Amino acid sequence: MSTLKGRTALVTGGSRGIGRGIAERLARDGARVAVHYGERKEAAEKTVAAIEAAGGSAFALRARLGEPGDAEALWAAFDQEADGLDILVNNAGIAGTAGIAGTDREEFDRLHAVNVRAPFFVIQQGLSRLRDGGRIVTLSSGAAQRPGMMPDLVAYTMTKAAVEALTAALARELGPRGITVNAVSPGIVDTEMNARLALDDPSSRAAIAELSPLGEVGSPAHIADVVAFLASADSRWVTGQSIDATGGTLL
């Protein structure tokens, strides 16, 4: 496919998991993809190599999100490789580890710094680079739709609810430029972030799969397909939405 030929995309946290799946799918659709990473340079380089081996175009860039100057560092690195942007995917994020009683101030602040503040300022400073008719897609979570389902991750869920509020507000503001702004809300996906769920154990995997009427555990490819639609011209009449990509687990 070449639906994104001539477009440039940036995927934060694009070296692993859902981010890698998105980066590879956008490249397969013809986009030149900036694969952002924070620490794992080798993983980012492997993602770039996989994209290039499949005939796509990509480059890696580093910036530690959640720290002072993170957006500035990210865009400075991007500007060395590209002169404009068409698709911004805010995928990078971290998960919480405890409910309200077990969440200390340090973890709370870290969650908000990476999951809320970073994408806010990455978008803010990227708008001068994002061409009219562009796309912004931010990864939310099914937990933001049903907060009561995951009370043990309340601080994390709060950050994703904030992302959805940002999505709706920006869709209104950026609409006159033809820029669509949407969020994608995965459920449980088989990635390193969900290692605590022991998805490599057959019984645990089967129990998680039963949560979806489709009888599967989510994969990065499932989410990447939804993001690819939102990045394409076919999504031109969809904006300000949070797309449920939980495989029906919220039904």
Automatic annotation (TrEMBL):
One GO MF term: oxidoreductase activity
Q: Which domain of life is it from?
A: Bacteria
**Where does the Ketoreductase domain start and stop, copy by copy?**
7-187
- Alphabetic keyword roster: Oxidoreductase
| Pfam families the UniProt entry points to | adh_short_C2
Against SUPFAM superfamilies, the record matches this protein to: NAD(P)-binding Rossmann-fold domains (SSF51735)
UniProt-listed PROSITE patterns: ADH_SHORT
Under InterPro entries, the record lists: KR_dom, NAD(P)-bd_dom_sf, Sc_DH/Rdtase_CS, SDR_fam
PANTHER family referenced in this protein's UniProt entry, alphabetically: OXIDOREDUCTASE, SHORT-CHAIN DEHYDROGENASE/REDUCTASE FAMILY (AFU_ORTHOLOGUE AFUA_5G02870), SHORT-CHAIN DEHYDROGENASE_REDUCTASE FAMILY PROTEIN
The entry's family comment says: Belongs to the short-chain dehydrogenases/reductases (SDR) family.
Q: What is this protein called?
A: NAD(P)-dependent dehydrogenase, short-chain alcohol dehydrogenase family
Native species: Streptomyces zhaozhouensis
